[in-house]
Design a protein that fits this description.
By secondary structure, this protein is an alpha+beta fold. Helices cover about 35% and strands about 10% of the residues. The strands form two sheets. It has a two-stranded antiparallel ribbon with strand order 1-2. A hairpin with a 4-residue loop joins strand 1 and strand 2. Helix 3 crosses helix 4.
């Protein structure tokens, strides 16, 4: 699937990206000691090792996700999607609208927040699919999204929650 790059603030994971993905950060800070493996990086590597062996990790590395309150709430919703399950952008939009007391929310706005998720795989934006169950909108590439879903045993069709 290619290389993954991690970023942290010293305590928590702030980014996890496929090297060539869309919305990749332009630069990384150089404040830390490049020869030191932070505990959060060790924990993230352990999580990824389990995940790519086809196991469901039962812990989440400490995260510090930076974004607007809207994006942060959508990313929290992503963390609530169970391993091996999918939901639609419309489902997330409907749920967000209900929480906020809104009549409706644009699935495209939700898609924008999902697409700007700074911690790929762990914050499972790959589990969000189009209304008809189609693979759409993955910053790391649709081939990677399909691979991640297959690893979790998802059958890509119209099996995603829509409401």
């Amino acid at each position: 699937m290619g290389q993954l790059l991690m970023a942290a603030d010293g305590e928590a994971l702030t980014g996890l990206w496929f090297e060539s993905q869309k919305y990749f950060p332009e630069s990384f800070g150089t404040d830390g000691d490049a020869g030191t493996l932070l505990p959060v990086f060790e924990e993230t590597i352990q999580w990824l090792d389990l995940y790519f062996k086809g196991q469901q990790p039962h812990f989440t590395p400490k995260l510090n996700l930076k974004g607007t309150p809207f994006r942060q709430r959508i990313w929290e919703m992503l963390l609530e999607i169970p391993y091996g399950e999918m939901v639609t952008y419309q489902y997330l939009a409907h749920r967000y609208a209900q929480e906020q007391g809104l009549k409706q929310m644009s699935a495209q706005a939700v898609g924008g927040a999902v697409g700007h998720n700074p911690v790929s795989i762990i914050v499972p934006c790959h589990r969000v699919v189009g209304t008809n169950g189609s693979l759409t909108g993955y910053a790391g590439g649709l081939d990677k999204k399909a691979t991640l879903l297959a690893l979790e045993g998802c059958i890509v069709s119209s099996t995603a929650k829509t409401q």
